[in-house]
Amino acid sequence: MDADDRTREAEDRAAREAAMAELRSLLLGPEQQTLDDLRRRLDDPALRAEDVGAVLAEAFAIAQRDVHLAEALAPTVEQALHRSVQRDPEPVADALFPVMGPAIRRAITHALKGVMQSFNQALEHSLSWRSLRWRLEAWRTGRPFAEVVLQHTLAYRVEQVFLIHRETGLPLQHVVAAEVPTQDADLVSGMLSAIQRFLQDSFRMEEDDRLESLEMGDLTVWIEPGPQAVLACVIRGLPPSELRETMQEIVEAVHRQYGRVLAGFDGDEETMAGSRPLLERALLVQYTEAPRSGRWAWGVLLLLLLAGAVWITQAVRQHQRWDAFRAAVAAEPGLVLLRAEPSGRPPHVEGLRDPLARDPAQLLQAAGVSPDGVVMRWVPFQSADSALVLRRAVQVLQPPPDVTLRLRGTTLYAEGEAPPGWMASARMLARVLPGVSTLDTTGLTTPAERRLRELQARIEAVQVRFSGRTTRLAPGQDAVLRDLAEALTALDATAREAGRGVVVTVTGHTDATASAEVNRQVSRQRAERVVAALRRAGLRVSNTTPGLRIEVQGVGADHPARPERTPDDQAANRRVSFDVRFSDTSIPH
Amino acid sequence: MIKKKICMLGTSAVGKTSLVRRYVQGFFSEQYLTTIGVKIDKKTVDLDGQALTLVLWDLNGEDPFQRVAASYLRGAAGFLLVADGTRRLTLEGALRLHERLHDALEGVPGVLVLNKADLTASWAIEPARIEALQREGWTVRRTSAKTGMGVEEAFEHLARRLLAP
Ligand SMILES: Nc1nc2c(ncn2[C@@H]2O[C@H](COP(=O)(O)OP(=O)(O)OP(=O)(O)O)[C@@H](O)[C@H]2O)c(=O)[nH]1
Ligand SMILES: [Mg+2]
């Protein structure tokens, strides 16, 4: 073929193409335009997405009638959910929250109810008279106690629920009530369906005539057939007709939810695992005596709570008592607490105790804890605590009742009246007292010294009066002088007895009317007059040391009893006064 | 766990019950065999890490009315067709039985078991007959329920066929 031929051929083809195009446009006319549009749309992904988007919702709605869409979508949705949770669990958690809360609450309520019910039963069975009777019955008949109880109290109980694949007789799912011995689901399912078939064969029943119930002793098997699965409940006791309805509902639900799984069941029980909760709905139980909504149990629970509260209060109070005891011991001189174990068995206390300290058992009792049963071990020691030092001093020195001892620093002060002999021995003993460096006895007097002081006061209180400006004693002074003479005589005797020297100064006074010279003479004469009168009244003075010595002086108007404004004042200043001085200064003034 | 229903088939006294007894731990009393014509046992086998439970339906041999309940076979995933190797008639009976149950057993894998292999002196099945059966497509196993010979293998062979696609 030469070049011309080829050119001609190409021309021919072009012409044919043009003719075809024209033919198409003649035949299809405006549709051609539409076709071109469509092709463009199909080629353009953006436009295609737009088109699909517009019908997606409707497409889903249609496809939903078939389960295939759900199946096809499931992996994608699962994956999307998984990713979402991985990225941020919060949105999913938020979405689930309203569902989870009630579900968890319901589960807890359910569990609690179960617990209360069995608690209640346990109580009734262990506490009541009736239970004793049943125990006796169990013992007599040789049956287990649980069985006797069940026989008396159980109306019925669904013990096992089998969901059996009708075709193969294999168990699809099997649930068992708590505390019921399980049977082999494979074998029971097989036997049940074998029995079913045996009956059908033997009595030439129709396929739809099904065995509905089997009875053996107090066990009943109720069978509820479905197109692909059979539900069988093993029941102890007499089941109510409502159970049948529940069973029908379960069978229906199983077929609704697992229809496809059942149709293609290949013996893999995993595929039916989700049906357990459905079956569990048939695990019903009813007692002849309803568990009284746990009134018993609540009562006992309340009691237990109360007992608990009491116990806690007791424990707290006991704790407080022991704290009080610890504080008391800490505050008590001469006690040192080393260990206190209130919760020990037996409770015990250890510490140091000065023999002079208070009895710790008393403190324990005072704190409200009975010392009985508390083991106490106190190691003796000598406390340097001032209270104890003082107590020890009292114990060692044994002061007479009128003496009080005080401790300041390490100096022990003795105050009051004590016989001289005691004082002497106290001074010696004090030197060996732990915690005492010196004994201060300046606050001590002897009985004799007290007497001396009394006499001193009595004597110094006396004023002797005179008639006018004379040196004659005023009338009616005899009694005063007799009394004075007696006091002075006693003073002399007591001073000698106590080994003390006493000087009584008899001082004469005048008013200020005369001259000082006259006054001095008159005052001196007045004093001498009084001494002479005293001697007449019976005064005898030893004039020795120890003993009483009398000195006489006249001071004129130098020491008036009171300022002179009236004649009365002057009269009061015309007098003789007495002054008692002990020569030993150890007697405080 | 995968579970499969297996049926024991064969004429009377060929050793079906004995084979099952040898293979499994019994559960139900054999009383059931006479009352309802079937006894259920089970055995879980481990096939290369895959657990499979065989639920064995031991059917009574042909009853006097020559009526094996086809309904018992429904849902069976496999069967053991048992014959007594010392009695040739039982093999023919087993095959006739299989033929009769054709509708129920269509497409269901099975193993032909020639039992009582311990009784070698009275063995009645010639090797040629066995070869012929194998050519027909039968898997043939010789067993002895008495000694245990070949029993596990026969069941296990069937089990493997059940799991194979
Ligand atoms: N020697 C020997 N005897 C066997 C063997 N298997 C079964 N038998 C005996 O054969 C007899 C029948 O055995 P079964 O197992 O009851 O036979 P079956 O097939 O179950 O019989 P049916 O239930 O009546 O159909 C019994 O006496 C068994 O002891 C075997 O392998 N060797
Ligand atoms: Mg038998």
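Residues 3-65 of chain A form one domain.
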